[in-house]
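Consortium newsletter contribution from the modelling node. Members have asked for a concrete example of what our holo predictions look like. Here is one, prepared for the S-adenosylmethionine complex that several groups have been discussing at recent meetings.
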Amino acid sequence: MKFDNELSIIQQKIANGYAGVSRRLSIMNSLDIEIGQNIIDIGCGGGHLVQEISLSVGENGKSIGIDPSNDQLEAANNRCKNLNNVELICCTADKIDIENGFCDRVTSTQTLEYIEDVDLSLNELKRISKKNSKFVNVSILWDYFRFYGPEKKLNDLIHDAFRAHCFHQMLPLDLVGKLSSLGYQNIQSENLSYLITNRDENSPAIFYEKMLAKFALSQGVEEDKILDWQKQINQSEKSKKFGFTSFPVLTTAYLS
Ligand SMILES: C[S@@+](CC[C@H](N)C(=O)[O-])C[C@H]1O[C@@H](n2cnc3c(N)ncnc32)[C@H](O)[C@@H]1O
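And here is the predicted structure:
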């Protein structure tokens, strides 16, 4: 899935909302940042984390964000325009114009699962990492990403169509072995799952519903079925039979 135009706006609303804030809190805790460090955010999107890292590393540190989407980088540029220790680079994670061993921390949020040849990118992330640096990643177990409420057949249709939105449905479970074979140590996985049973205007469920609807349409699902699915979500919420679950996993590791 390409995070351009309307999709980049939906994605940035998710990042602004409480799901985005709470996962950035977990990431910032794990990054354990020190003044003067060089930290890179892979797939930085609208630059929320880049901004927070910039303020944490101080003037002698560097906060770098990379993303191949011009729309995402434009938003990141706006967010960080007054910060002079920020560098934003338009590129993909498999070819980053940064010298070997430059980064004290490498982090990424809900990005690696969208990269087809994720091994190539992990190799590149290792190349730009210092010895003893820390890697902090959040990716979602998409098999457990689910709306509840609409009738099962219709719900399955929309979710099945959405599977094509990323290459790796269960990346956190493969990441442990991949990092281990690259020489990372002390690899740990933390469960950041959440459950929502009602929807307010800032809820990730609202934005993900729009994202699934838009993506299903692009996959050839008939519009009336998508509208019916959305109507059933609404009705299920009114009758207090609605649910939305997501299962992000925070993976941390050290490069020895
Ligand atoms: C779901 S968004 C997450 C954005 C941000 N990390 C956040 O949590 O708000 C995924 C981001 O990964 C970017 N992306 C996709 N393929 C990429 C690649 N090969 N290398 C780096 N970033 C990529 C997309 O453009 C998009 O901004």
